[in-house]
Amino acid sequence: MAGGRRETGLKRAHFVEPRVAAMLLLPQLAILVLFFFIPSIRALAQAFLLADPFGTVVQFVWFDNFRSLLASADYRDSVWTTIWFTLAQNALTLAVAAVLAFATDRVVRLRSAYKMILLLPYAIAPAIAGILWAFLFNPAVGPLAHMLRMAGIAWNPNLVAGDALLLVTLAASWKHICYDYIFLVAALLAMPQSLLEAAAVDGAGPLRRFFLIALPMIGPTVFFLVVMNFVYGFFETFAIIDAVTRGGPAGATNILVYKVYQDGFVNLDLGSSAAQSVILMISAFALTLLQFRYVERKVNYDV
Amino acid sequence: MVERTRVLDVVCHLILLLGAALVCLPIYFALVAGSLTIQEVQQVPLPWLPGSQLFTNAAAAWTKGNFGRLFVNSAIVAVGITVGKIAVSMLSAFALSYFRFRWRMTAFWLIFASLMLPIEVRIVPTFESVANAALPLQWLADLAGIRVTLQWNMIDTYGGLILPLIASATATFLFRQFFLTIPEELCEAARIDGASPWRFFRSILLPLSTSNMVALAIILFLYGWNQYLWPLLFTTDKNMATAVIGLKHLIPRSDMEPAWNIAMNAALITMLPPVMVVLVLQRWLVKGLVDSSK
């Protein structure tokens, strides 16, 4: 044991009982095979097959599903909707969270009270966040919709595409700001105070310190959060869309994840749905790789 | 705090107050709407102050939404996911970091791969897997030429609601990272004293992991309680739905009586358990979130 080659991620003092190890790993691997590997591989396989609506005749069609998918205007619209939605949500979430985090870092009194309230949306289900905002902006009864009307602004998310997209973006950001906020507060707290003090002694004001010291120091965290915001926007906003707009009006909020569900379970176009899943898998894969870069980069910044 | 700047401090407080107001606004109006009668809730504009019907509406929402049953379901699912995922991932993290065996790195990469794909991207095939969990056995039987029809339908069961959500390795990696930071001497000493792996796990690793387990348990409980897509797909029986799904059915659509007072009250009831968890265990939640990103 002592002279042996050190294996990665293995403790120096370890047990050599393969049968026990197998028993320990069995539950995890069994669940993963049943509910991760088999479904993922079947999604891959299905993406290259074409089945008739009754599922009796199945044909291997190479990339036809992808070709017809990329040729469809609906799908391209959905891609653009997703891009706009995630970008807007990402920018809004991060900007608000950053302002709040820096303010929290400066105040002394009431700090934990602010934190407690700002963290609340973390507890609230995305579907419920969607419902709360849908009510506020409901054209018939919503108090905020009424205010918009009083201000002379036409508002109807049930009919106007832009309004609907704005509403789901607001709801999605409201739900996710707390996540970015937690990380930014933690990153600011971990920042060495001596650096800031030294800069202050040298005569740098709060704004200068913010742009020249604090911002570069929390860079890796911001990078991580941008990636996580994309993951959230791409995959976890399903419930918000379903609760607020159901992808409407006329597909204006039909983001990719929602379209997979619609084509798979409502329209029963399994081949197309599987091809969409595969494209989503590729984007999820890319996002995960980016996330790992954060882990590497963070090491360089550790003080 | 480096220096005192009165103006900046005031600005910071104003920003935070505004942020807190923004967080509370939707919840506050849910409270207002949830405490009005059905006539009052349809007034334009909506009153700014709560009415007197909060508890009447809560009782009405509770029976109308069948929440007595749905809360039990939500609790079983949330606790099932929490306990199941922690147990499964601690055991596998223990195996990966404390055992030397031939397929260790293979097992590691297999588990690692599951981090890549969120559950949302494979909903249709996962649904098929849950509709007949015996499918792999069926394939084996077909290969072996055995003529049997195996069927294990997990739709409308707690297993079907819980197991697919455990199939991800996030928690495994959290525990693995933590185990790697535990001093080597502990295991050396245990081995010298002749402790079995199980004894070492129970008497040393488990107590050391308590704080990680609590932090993770909070995140997983919230995750489980707030699930939407899976319960929506996996339950056809109304009695097997979860509270969030029950709430969705109370939201007035265009062809329904606009009972927003009942719906918003139900929204408050449904969010109450996770909100309580976050308020009471906030410190642990923050620790868990920040740790799980490392």
Describe the structure.
The complex is a heterodimer of chains A (303) and B (294). Chain A is an all-alpha fold and 303 residues long. Chain A has one domain (65-301): Orthogonal Bundle (MetI-like fold), CATH 1.10.3720. In chain A, 72% of the residues lie in helices and 2% in strands. Chain A has 13 helices and two strands. Chain A has helices at residues 18-46, 64-71, 73-106, 111-119, 126-136, 143-150, 161-189, 193-201, 206-217, 219-236, 238-244, 256-266, 270-301, and strands at residues 49-51, 58-60. A two-stranded antiparallel ribbon of chain A has the order 1-2. In chain A, α2 (64-71) packs across α13, α5 (126-136) crosses α7 (161-189) and α8 (193-201) runs antiparallel to α9 (206-217). Chain A is globular and about 75 Å long. Chain B has 294 residues and is mainly α. Chain B has one domain (6-292): MetI-like fold, CATH 1.10.3720. Chain B has helices at residues 6-34, 38-41, 54-64, 67-98, 104-113, 123-131, 135-143, 158-166, 170-181, 184-192, 197-208, 210-225, 229-234, 243-250, 260-280, 282-292. In chain B, α4 packs parallel to α8, α4 (67-98) packs across α9 (170-181) and α4 (67-98) runs antiparallel to α12. The two termini of chain B are 27 Å apart. The mean pLDDT of chain B is 87. The interface between A and B is large, with 107 and 116 residues.
